[in-house]
Input
Amino acid sequence: MNIVYDKYFSKFLDSDQFKDLIKSIDDVFFYDAIINVKKFDNFKLFEEKLGKKVPEWVIATNHEHEVWVLDPSRWSQKDISTPEQIIAHEIVHIIVNHSFETIPPLWIGEGMAIVFAKQTEAIETFDDVKNPYDETYNDNLYRDSAKVIQAIFDQYGTENAINYMRSLKDFEHDKVYGYTAINDFCKILNQRS
Ligand SMILES: [Zn+2]
Output
């Protein structure tokens, strides 16, 4: 993967933390494309380009092969993640959206983005996992999704899990990633803790 960005981002994207994150993403996805990281200072312009209202808490998003980020000076008060992690998170979304046979359900995309960006601090301390298929966009969606994806990676191996997902056509009825399978998987996870 080739990441293109303007000078502004050098202090984040030339860092070892970012390089390590990208290496672990490259190692499993082998995604060969150019990804552009662009800055938006103006929230209104950001919304205009996206063509929709954006909730206040959004600090970055992705569009085709571009990561769009809002002024990182706002980031510190928003999130426990670093700018490096936030950009890596969006890059995982881009790869998943373009390299899988079928775009996976919301929770799988978010779970993988969090796990690969190592934004997993929040999932280590909780143990009541709900089926992320039942969540809408909120903190629980991120938390439950990441917890389930991490547990699946631990059980099957990250590369195997990704390769299996890559060619899936029907996630919701799948024997590993389907609604019922994930329900059972959550029950087991909750008994373990
Ligand atoms: Zn995301």
